Structures are given as C-alpha cells and as structure tokens.
Amino acid sequence: MTTRILAVDDIEINLRLLEMTLEALPLTIDSAQNGIDAIELAKNNEYAAILMDINMPVMNGFECVEKIRALPLHRLTPVIFITAAGNQANYVQQGYEVGAIDYLNKPFDENILISKISILLALFNERKSTEEALAQVRLLQRQHEQLLNFTAEGIIGLDIENIITFANTAACTLLTAKRNDIVGQSIKDFIDPLSNNKDWMASEFIQTFNENQCNQNDNAHFWRNKHAQFPVQYSQSSIIEDEHRKGGVVIFQDISERKEIENKLVNLAKFDQLTGLSNRALYWEFLEKVTANSQRVGDNLCVMFLDLDHFKNINDTLGHDAGDLLLVQASERLKGVLRNADLIARLGGDEFAVVLQQMTSINDAANVAQKIIDAFSQPFHLFGKDSYIGTSIGIASFPEHGIDAITLTKAADTAMYHAKKSGRNNFKFFDSDMHMRIQSHLEVTNDLRLAIKNNHLLPYYQPIMHIAENRISGFEALARWNHKEKGIISPGVFIPIAEESGLIEDLGQFMLLAAGQQARQWFDGDHKKTRKHLTIAINVAAKQLKQKNFSQQILALLEKNKIAARHIKLELTESALMDDPLDVIRQLNDLRQAGVTIAIDDFGTGYSSLSYLKKFPIDYLKIDQSFIRDIGEEKNDEAIIRAIIQMAHSLGQKVIAEGVETPQQLEFLASLGCDYAQGFLFSKPVPWREAEQFLPMQ
Ligand code: C2E
Ligand code: CA
Ligand code: CA
Q1: 495 in ligand 1 pocket by Cβ < 6 Å?
Q2: For residue 531, how far is the Cα from the chain centroid?
Q3: How many A from CA of 296 to the centre of ligand 1?
C-alpha cells in the first residue's frame, strides 16, 4: 500500500501544480477543493501529511484542519499551510494552534516542498512500523497473559525486592485473594518461612534469589488468606539480565490432595485400621528407637504383652462384628488407663502391646498392669449382650530382661504365655526360669519330632470293663515316650508340647496305626468269635479334628491297613466339638457310618452343655475321673454322676467311668447303672504284652 498525502485548495490549478511537483516521490495525492470534501476524505484515509490552503470559500483552512485533527486517525498528522505571500505573519499563531507544523508561501520553492514532504514521509513510515511492532508486542503480551491465566499453577512475578508485580488467576484462586490484594505485597506474606525452620532472610527462598539461582521445594506451606496454611510444591527462578537479577518468578501448586493420600498411606502402613492404635510395624519402629535411646540415656522402660482371654469364644458365639466391637472397646479401655506418652499397639488378632517409658520402678509397671486388669473387669457391651473378658499380661523391663527390641518382645511374650498358663486374667513379669523353660521346651519339641519319626513312641493299653457282665470290653491306648536317657515319659509332659508345635497330627496318626494294627492282631482271625466286639479307644486332640478331611484320613488309614472300623473308638473332648460344630457333626457321621464309635472324654470338665451335646452323634460319655475320685465324699458330685448317667441313657448313650480305683467306687457306679469302668482298680495302662492277659481266650 502506498503512502498518501492530502492536498486541499479551492483552485484546481494549484492542486495540479502540487501534483506535478511531487510526482517523483513514492506517494499518492488525494485532493479536495473545499473543506467539506477534505474532511470526508480524511475520515476514511490515513495521511502522512496534509497540505492545506488557508483562504477557501465556505470553510477556511484553519477550521478544516481543526476538524480533521479531531478525528482519531489524524490526531498526529502533520499539516503544512500554504499561504499567499504577505499574509503569513497574521496566520502563524492561529495555524500553530490547530496543529500546523510549517508554512509555505506561494509561489513555493519546489525543492523545499519536495524535501519537506520527503522527511514527513520518512517519519510517517517510521511511525507506522513502530506502531506495527508495538501492536505485535501487545498481541504477544495478551497471549502470554492468557496463557499464564489459564494454567492451573499459580504464577507470581517478583521484582528485585521480592514485591509481587504479577499474579495469574490460578495464584489468586489458590491464595484466595483478589489480584489487587496480592500485587504490591511482599511474597513474604504468602510463604511460610517456618517451612524450613529459619528466619526469613536466612530462608532457602531468599538464599536462592541472593545466589541468582533456581530451586524447587516439594514440601512447603503457603498462607491462604493470611491465616490458613496449605501445602505446596513450588519452584522459584531468578530473572537475570546483564548478569544481574532483575526479579524472580514463583510457580506453585496446591498439593493438599496428594498430601492427604500420602498421609492415608502412612496411616495404613503404621496404624491398625480397626482400633486406630499403632500396628505391628510402628510398634517395632518405636521400640527400636526407644531402646536405642534408653541405652544411651539409661532410662527405664517396660514392654507389656496383652492377650484377651477366650476372645475366640466371642467370635464363635456372637460373630465377628461383636469380636471387632470388643477389640475397639478393649483398646478404648487401654487408652483410658495409659498415658499419652505410652505406645499402645495392636499386634494382630486379640494381641496388644504397650511400651511404657520413664518408669521409676518396676512397681509402676505392676500398677499399670493391675489397672488394666481392673479396667477389663467391667462387662463389655456387645450388641445388647454383656460379656466378661479378662486379659493376660506379660511384662518385660529394660534393661533387666533385655536391652533390644527383639529380646524384650520375646521376654514379654513368654511372660504373657505364663500369665495365661497360670489361670489367665493376671499379669506376670518375665523371669529367667521362664527362659530355661522355653529352652527346654524347644529341646523337647525337637526330641519329640525325632521320637515320632524313629518309633520311640509306643502305646500302652488300659482295659475298660463292662461293669454288669464283669468282662473286658476293650482298651484305651495311651501314648508313652520311651526316651533313651529319661526312660518312659508320660503324655502329661509331651502331649501339650505336641499340640503347640503341630506334632500332634503325626502323633495321632502314629497312635491310630499302632493301636489299629494291635486290634487287628488281637481281635480278628482265629479270635474273631469271642473278641469281635472289643474296641481300642484312641485319643484325638482338638487340633486333629480341625483338619477338614479328618474323617477321610482316618478311614483311609484303616482301609489301607485292613483294620476293621468297628474295633476303633475315638475319644474327643467337648471343647474340640465346639470349635466348628457343623463340620464336626458331618465328620462324626461319616466315621460312625463306617463303624467307628465315638466317645466324649473328660465329660464334666468342659462346657458341659448337656442340651448342646444332644446334637452330636455320640456313642459313649466318659465321666471325668475328678468326679469318680470324690465318690463317698462329696454328695454333690454323686448327684452329678447320677444325672449324667440318666441323661446319657435317655439319649441312647453308654457311660464309662474313668479313674475307678476302689471297689466302693465301682459298687456305687454299678448301683447307678453305669455301663463301663476303667481305672487302676483293674489295671494301669500297660505294654501290649501285659495287656494281652486281659483278653478272653478262645
Ligand atoms: P485321658 O484321655 O483322660 O486318659 C486317662 C488318663 O488317666 C491316663 O493318663 C491314665 O493313665 C490315667 N488313669 C487311668 N486310670 C486311672 C486311675 O484309676 N487313677 C488315676 N489317677 N489315673 C488314671 P495318661 O496316660 O498319663 O494320659 C494323660 C492324658 O494324655 C490323657 O488323658 C490324654 O488326654 C492324653 N493322651 C494320652 N495318649 C494320647 C494320645 O495318643 N493322643 C492324644 N491326643 N492324647 C493322649
Ligand atoms: Ca482318653
Ligand atoms: Ca479322660
């Protein structure tokens, strides 16, 4: 597009003259012969210069220029007035007032006009390109601002004094402040210098700028509204020009959500979700830290292990929701007794641990333990039911029982185990005897494992008599351990160990096979006629019964070894039946179908829920020897024996009395119609060769 100028003169010839003069210049000339036309042209065109005659009819040159200069397009357009000679002096002032930059007298010097117009052209072109560049810059600036305002990150511009000069929309939103309340403030008002625990001038933020550096901080806090903090991640960078810092930029993000998730994960990893107490991981972490500290400073501390007594009963009878509720209530009671500084952890199941710090004496721990036991003496309200649950507590103290987390924990656990053994609902301190006992316990377990493997176990047999017919009805097989150094060891010593270590299953299999083979040899073949109704009773531990395919295992073993099921009687305790009644009933039915008979052992010492017992497919009840022992002395027990026998008979079950030692006892039992008797009165348990003497001959 060519550059234009406007020439205004009422005499056409003058206009032509101007055109001819300026012919050589790169421009287009618009011409008008009166003010009205000139203004019209000026409305629609931009001119590098205006050449204006002064004396014109209708509207003189001054008036015309004044109107043109009022148009926004022409506020700065230079005007040269062309005047007739001699008039100049009168007009000068008036001309400058409306914006003239120069005067030319008619007739004008062509060269002067050309050079003046050339300069104005050059200026105009210069101005144009400056304006374009400026427009470009403005456009870029607008684009940048939009970009900054649309990003989700807060962006803040700072001057050299760390005063905020710019804040994007996100920054205003995140800081919940108006832009006007942010711009002009010091960034100090928005950053929490305590984020890095230093005063402002020494803070990492200021240091970074002082060193003209950039920095990222993933764990800072900014102020929102000047009173609420929120977690941010920010990066700051210095703006450097000519090697000097001119200011800085801070870009930040609200990381509340991320922090929340992180906290949740930490929470999951360190706290028990049911009770809110510390979990096992945090317990170890804490104990390791405080034992290390106590080793340095010499403080006392105690570790307590707690186990709820009979928690399993609650789960089994009232359901898992009640169990969970109990755990929550139990942890509340613990919190009520303990101080804030004490760590309370749930290690899993119904096991809790407490770490007590700064104990003045061991009595402190005893007091706390007693307080816990007292707190547990109140009933727990579980869905409308009151349940009494005690707790057994083991205590180990630093440094007497150990100076590291593992030793202290083991000691507290051992002490708790002993608290349970000695009647529950009490507390025990660890002592070195316990240590010896654990040690020998471990040795015995290993020995027993080898004994089972090497056939050093053997069954002894104790006859069971039919009272009314005064004849043998069979035997109970009782395990003995033939120890190469210690001689014959009784099951009272090794059965509990076998149960704890899981060896009881191997032991049970061994006894079943040994006794079954003995039964086959004694009762079948040539002797079938007189001995075919005899049985050998085998004791079954609760743990064995828990195996899902218990009945199949037994029946498979019998079949494989050609042992007739009718010769086998299994003795189970009441508590074993109650563990999973439905499953037990199913398994017992399978066994009975195959011909195996079932006896309840030690009857009267367990739950003794007579009505419950009806549901089980049972052939015999064995009255516990504690009742028999007191015959002739305790009237109450005699009444109980009478009731048991009557009840069993009414359910179609036979009764066996255990531990019959005297003729009086036997007589009394006979008078009540008791079916069978077993005890030292007839024989102790003896090896098979001696037991054989009791068998009826052909
Ligand atoms: P239990 O099943 O109640 O066995 C009866 C216990 O009473 C036997 O003790 C027996 O020797 C004893 N006894 C028998 N008659 C009399 C008597 O007239 N007076 C007195 N004072 N005691 C008498 P033992 O053999 O020491 O067995 C103890 C317990 O060990 C058994 O009690 C049983 O629970 C368990 N046990 C024995 N062998 C096995 C086995 O093979 N497997 C399992 N799971 N447990 C076994
Ligand atoms: Ca028994
Ligand atoms: Ca018994």
Answers
A1: yes
A2: 65
A3: 54
